[in-house]
Amino acid sequence: MTLRTTTLALVSALAATAAATLALTGAGPAAAAGVQCSVDYTANDWGSGFTANVKLTNPGTTPIDNWSIGYSYTGNQTLSGSGWNGTWSQSGKNVTVAAPAWAGTIAAGGSVSAGANFSYSGTNAAPTSFTVNGVACNGAASPSPTPSASASASPSASASASASASASASASASASASASASASASASPSPSASSSGSTGSGKAPALHVSGNKLVDANGSQVILRGVNRSGMEFMCVQGYGFSDGPVDAASIAAIKSWKANAVRVPVNEDCWNGYSNVKPEYAGENYRTAVKNFVYALRDAGITPIIDLHWTQGLYTGNSSGCSDVNSTCQKPMPGAGAATFWSSVASTFKNDPSVVFDLLNEPYADRAVSGIDQAWNCWRDGGSACPGINYPVSGMQTLVNAVRTAGANNVILLGGLAYSNDLGQWLAHKPTDPAGNLAASWHVYNFNTCASQSCWNSTVAPLAAQVPVVVGEIGENDCAHSFIDQVMSWADAAKVSYLGWTWNTWDCGQGPSLISNFDGTPTAFGLGLKNHLAAVN
Question: For residue 236, with 0-12 CB atoms within 10 Å meaning exposed, 13-18 middle and 19 or more buried, which class applies?
């Protein structure tokens, strides 16, 4: 899925945490009612800006209505954008976070969390006092640094003007993380009985392909079941931040509470490669650090990260064009030359971590751009002159596989098919050569796709799944219900196929598949189907 033109967000390298557990006292209606509160403040700082997260908890016995948090900075911290999960505003050094319409009351024992991005220069001291509904809270915030996710050095990517592409048929924006592995191309041990993989507190399993299965270092089958985390593919290139909403430890814990063992992280070519069309604060090393921190945090929580190249460069205005922009601002039918630079850099970054999976292109749709399905599959694999009708230098899947392996990464690679990854009909016949033997098929299925019936799954997907691992990178439906994905998940469970729901974002599920209404993990009606199913099978 794709298409998102939203506001801001995210996280990056350093984290400074200040927790203030404060009782409301003094004059005013809140104090008269005996209301109590605790405010937790966290700042994720990347040097020239930061994400402020505030969590307001009601430990009292009566609800807090129409809540509003107030605090002040001592430096030049300046609000960027509109924030999320609250109405953020700033007057001078004073910041106010007012309740959104959908979360105006905090029940006894309940809490709400909100976040926003800020810019600054100089020092970034945490606020030392808070108010709730205008009433001062006693106590002081005493910030103490928390360790950030480890980040390995990433080579500087060259700012190439060459075209690259990624496509999707519907409104969506995904989040995915990639990994590098040292997996052998030789025959691996026979897998043991199927399991869903680690959801414990340890690191995610090292993965490689064995026959038609993903297996861990012990040869046990790992079935990935989880969610997409959209945001990193569009927020940076739109100039708002790194992600749509928080990607901190609390947000990962919320995902994990659904029993998810995999998260797909969609990313952006322009931002990773550091092209000049992206604001410097969200490009190059800053962006790569943000992605790495999220990927490593997922991995360390026992969740398999899947890095998905979602938006890429390439000027395409033909059939089913998503935009008339050469930059990575929408999905393109195929990746351009810059995608090879991207994957070489990503592979170098994660090549020593086989828990990270690479998804080479979100949703190819060369079938909409060239003449005939056979030509489209040739274009998919070979790129270049095999892609008449696409007026930029196309990198085929073989080129991208070569870029990953030449960089020394043997990580598992996912390859989405045509028709926005819904068509896997000629995937096996056009499978690229891989010296590591670690290729798997990526499939996307929504209720509005062509291959949306069990008869199609049985005739096209099942025969492929009998020969190579299949990961359903996106499942969803556009009616805010879950009857369709219930069918998909039951079918996939029987076929021992992995799947991830689209998407862990607080968007309107009536306009597109959105799993949650709050980043604390509160499910939408659509998301409830996935949540309940994961709880039953993982």
Answer: buried
The pair of structure tokens assigned to 235 is: 């927020």
> Would you say the C-alpha torsion 314, 317, 319, 321 has a positive or negative sign?
positive
SS3 state of residue 213: strand
Q: What is the DSSP letter of 512?
A: S
Q: With beta carbons less than 8 A apart as the criterion, state whether 369 and 390 touch.
A: yes
Alpha-carbon dihedral sign for residues 252, 258, 263, 265: negative
Q: Which token pair is 376?
A: 């489209």
**Alpha helical stretches, state H, 427-538:** 454-456, 462-465, 483-495, 525-537
The model's confidence at residue 118, banded by pLDDT at 50, 70 and 90, is: confident
Check residue 211 and report its DSSP letter: T
SS3 call for 499: strand
Q: Minimal CA–CA distance to 246: which of 537, 508, 44?
A: 44
When the pLDDT of each residue in the chain is averaged and rounded to a whole number, the result is: 83
With a CB cutoff of 8 Å and minimum separation 6, the contacts of 125 are 73, 74, 75, 143
d(CA 156, CA 158): 6
Strands (E), 217-281: 220-222, 225-228, 262-268
Q: Residue 429: is it exposed, middle or buried by C-beta count within 10 angstroms (0-12/13-18/19+)?
A: exposed
Beta bridge partners of 145: 16
Q: Write down the pTM of the prediction.
A: 0.68
> Is the predicted pLDDT of residue 413 greater than 80, yes or no?
yes
Q: How far is the C-alpha of 469 from the C-alpha of 306, rounded, in Å?
A: 15
Task: State whether the Cα torsion 218-221-227-228 is positive or negative.
Answer: positive
CB 137 within 8 A of CB 131: yes
| Nearest residue to 423 via CA among 397, 449, 405 | 449
Residue 456 corresponds to which tokens in the numbers above? 């199609």
- Could you tell me whether strands 192-195 and 357-359 are parallel, antiparallel, or unpaired per DSSP bridges? unpaired
Residue for token digits 């690229």?
Answer: 432
| Domains parsed from the chain with CATH numbers | 14-146 (2.60.40.290), 192-478+497-505+514-537 (3.20.20.80)
Using an 8 Å Cβ cutoff, are 50 and 124 in contact? Answer: yes
CA-CA distance, 235 to 193, in Å (whole number)?
A: 41
Query: Could you give the maximum distance between any two Cα atoms of the chain, in Å?
Result: 76
The DSSP 8-state label assigned to residue 239 in this structure reads: T
